């Protein structure tokens, strides 16, 4: 695979739904006026980096952010869960001076979950040895502080989006969320997945956005859309960063 080039902002406590590429949108019903959203909240922290051989370090810095963001998008399709926006999570980490070295210590995960009103917290670590790719994930219950389940998905870096989709499905099951409706599953299968080239461009866009380099971030979002024009999450995140940049 060609060597990759190196290399999110309104905050909200409300539910976030970010659809993945051209997949059936299934927006969670908004709570009635004056009513609190009773759905369990879930947040996904940026993944850590384990053993990696084969790519530039900045590629992995991009992937650790991009794959976490895509996991959020996949889980958000389920109307039974309230997904915490990545931008809100990053704001809390900065305000609380947490995760300064790119990692969040285990003893602070529950604290973060309570600060952002998330019942479930997800952490993960990615591994890549010359294209042999793996993600290890842990699902925390922020109310009890317990690790509910650990999960692992393995495959090839060339199939990275499928691995993210598998991981999101496992996490939803582990959180006792109802499965997606059959029609939604069929629509998702029919639309297919973005190629790895688009996933990498999306991940680099998230990295550049985190670094405050809006121009390069927009450039990479556009590259993701060029590789996969129906990449809805890339278009949504791009326009959130710079209104109208990816219309």
List the helices and strands and how they pair.
Layout: E1 41-44, E2 48-53, H1 57-75, E3 82-83, H2 86-95, H3 106-116, E4 120-129, E5 132-141, E6 147-156, H4 160-174, H5 182-191, H6 196-210, H7 214-227, H8 232-241
Parallel strand pairs: 1-3, 1-4, 2-4
Antiparallel strand pairs: 4-5, 5-6
Helix pairs in contact: 1-4, 1-6, 6-7, 7-8
Average pLDDT metric: 84
Gyration radius over CA = 17 Å
**Range of strand content:** 15-25%
**What is the share of helical residues?**
40-55%
Number of helices: 8
Which sequence of SSEs, written as H and E, runs from N to C? EEHEHHEEEHHHHH
* Low-pLDDT runs: 1-28
The gross shape turns out to be globular
Distance between the termini: 29 Å
How many extended strands?
A: 6
What class do helices, strands and sheet pairing give? alpha/beta
Task: Characterize the biggest β-sheet.
Answer: 6 strands, mixed
Describe this structure in words.
The protein is an alpha/beta fold and 247 residues long. Helix content is 42%, strand content 17%. The chain contains 8 helices and 6 strands; from the N terminus they run E-E-H-E-H-H-E-E-E-H-H-H-H-H. Strands 1, 2, 3, 4, 5 and 6 form a 6-stranded mixed sheet that branches. Helix 7 runs antiparallel to helix 8. The longest helix is centred in the N-terminal third of the chain and has 19 residues, at 57-75. The protein is globular. The model is unreliable at 1-28 (pLDDT under 50).
Keywords for this entry:
247 residues, alpha/beta, six-stranded mixed β-sheet, 17% strand, globular, disordered N terminus
